[in-house]
Design goal:
Elements (H helix, E strand, L loop, with lengths): L1 H16 L10 H14 L2 H13 L10 H11 L3 H9 L17
Helix pairs in contact: 1-2, 3-4, 4-5
Length: 106
């Protein structure tokens, strides 16, 4: 279901951009279509409400491992986890750290 939603949004993005889909080839057109598809699936108001809902459900916003927040957003909006992480990286006030850092080598 989640993958289908992204594919539909990706196709809609190509229609809006008036371009042909050559996915999964990594062209500039595909990057632009994927970016637009992500925005179509996570409009600002809806995305903000999903983030707030995740926090009120018990996800700790100060936990350096934000995997739980990514999963909560992904489940709430029915979007791929990578898209939730991508959009969270630009969300104001959230420091996204998905890869644990070894304190001895940091």
């Amino acid at each position: 279901m989640i993958g289908r939603r992204f594919l539909v949004a990706h196709g809609a993005a190509h229609v809006l951009l008036r371009t042909d889909c050559v996915w999964p080839q990594g062209t500039d057109v595909e990057g632009e279509a994927s970016e637009l598809a992500g925005l179509l699936l996570t409009p600002p108001g809806l995305f903000t409400r999903a983030v707030r809902a995740a926090f009120t459900s018990g996800v700790d916003p100060w936990d350096p491992d934000t995997g739980g927040l990514v999963a909560a957003i992904s489940d709430s909006l029915l979007i791929p986890g990578w898209l939730a992480a991508y959009r969270l990286a630009d969300f104001p006030g959230i420091h996204l750290q998905l890869i644990p850092i070894d304190k001895e080598t940091a």
